[in-house]
Amino acid sequence: MNPGLERLTAYPFERLAQLLRDNRPPAQLAHIALSIGEPRHPMPQFVLDTLRDQLRQLDSYPVTRGLPALRAGIAANLQRQALPAGVCVDPATMVLPVNGTREALFSFVQAMVDPRARVDPRGQPRSPGGALVAMPNPCYQIYEGAALLAGAEPYYLNTTAANGQVPDLQAVPPAVWNRCQVLFLCTPGNPTGAVLSLDYLRYALELAERHDFVIASDECYADLYLDEARPPPSLLHAACASGRTRFERCMVFRSLSKRSSVPGLRSGFVAGDPALIAPFLLYRTYHGCAMPLPTQLASVAAWGDEAHVVVNRALYREKFQRVLPILQPHLEVALPAGGFYLWPDIGHACGGDEVEFTRALHAQQNVTVLPGSFLARDTATGNPGRGRVRISLVAAVDDCVTAAQRIAAFLGTD
């Protein structure tokens, strides 16, 4: 049996269910779930219509590479993201459809990591100790599980208020980078909402070139941002800005789940370096993860339309505008640069214990949030999720406002 299985920890929502299992919240208060990042906005009708109309396509096996129309639609979507003139996203060699970013983030590490490697492809010795996969802390737990099950060690890059909630790449020793085979980045960040700058991403690419690793940029929140004129830069933008027009060492992961509020469609894509796409496609051919044809055709429609995404962003902006004035007198909480999470410091509430805060809030107000420590790992310098909770503004606007009012009432009695 894979020894990495013994090192996997319970998923955050399993831990949350255990924490709240004995609670008996007030029956007269309807439950409001702000714990899981599952968008609840209305799904685009044209996507549902396309999916329904194409169900007859279930009589055919899909191919792992995906339909040419889907790969072309994804490439066109990326081209619209302000890539420089003359830079081409080749749909034949630079794009693959995936069943949501979760499965792709996991399987990419399985395909890329060589836990036995003692020299890099250029014949230079790596630092002793085996393969590392570096990742922000806190982070999406798939990064950690993927590393462990690939036979690599996770290396945690704490994100804190002191470093602007972004991993401090300059603080990592060269010996660690020499063992690194994959660096996970997430922009906008989960749970912090921090956006990585173009200069930051360019520096990450310089490190990848110097120390021979690849970068997996989780950009599933990339379409959710505050300023319509300033979308977050992608790792692909940074590659172009540094002369890497073939996106060397880059793989970006994007999804329709957040962009289009269709988490159950399980549709996304990976794009980047053809030298990474080719072996990843080979891996996926054996992995058995081809996207069903009706899903592919519905995805073509979704990637080709921006109007519904503009409406989606406006709804999240409205939530921030209405919720933050209610919470800020009681919590240290700021407007994030992107995504749909709030990442407040709970201060002295519940003695600064984010787990007790979560339990007591649910027991008294029937609102669920997620303890920050459930998303982070203990390190030599502490657990950066301690004293924080993640609030997912995924419910309807009025429900988010009601939940904020209940949190404020709870804090007023703490």
Describe, in plain words, how this protein is organized in 3D.
The protein contains 14 helices and 12 strands. It has 2 domains: 3-42 and 308-413, Aspartate Aminotransferase, domain 1 (Alpha-Beta Complex), CATH 3.90.1150.10; 60-305, Aspartate Aminotransferase, domain 2 (3-Layer(aba) Sandwich), CATH 3.40.640. The relative contact order is 0.18. With 414 residues, it is of the alpha/beta class. It starts with 11 loop residues before the first helix and ends with a helix. Strands 2-8-7-6-5-3-4 form a 7-stranded mixed sheet, sandwiched between helices. A 3-stranded antiparallel sheet has the order 9-12-11. Strands 1-10 form a two-stranded parallel ribbon. Helix 2 (45-53) packs antiparallel against helix 11 (293-303) and helix 4 runs parallel beside helix 5. The protein is globular, with a radius of gyration of 21 Å. The chain has helices at 12-20, 45-53, 68-80, 100-112, 141-149, 174-179, 198-211, 235-241, 256-259, 274-287, 293-303, 307-327, 354-365, 397-413, and strands spanning 32-33, 95-98, 132-137, 153-158, 180-186, 214-218, 250-255, 268-272, 341-342, 367-368, 370-371, 389-392. The model has no long low-confidence stretch (mean pLDDT 95).
What is the gist of this entry?
The protein is 38% helix and 12% strand. The protein has helices at 12-20, 45-53, 68-80, 100-112, 141-149, 174-179, 198-211, 235-241, 256-259, 274-287, 293-303, 307-327, 354-365, 397-413, and strands spanning 32-33, 95-98, 132-137, 153-158, 180-186, 214-218, 250-255, 268-272, 341-342, 367-368, 370-371, 389-392.
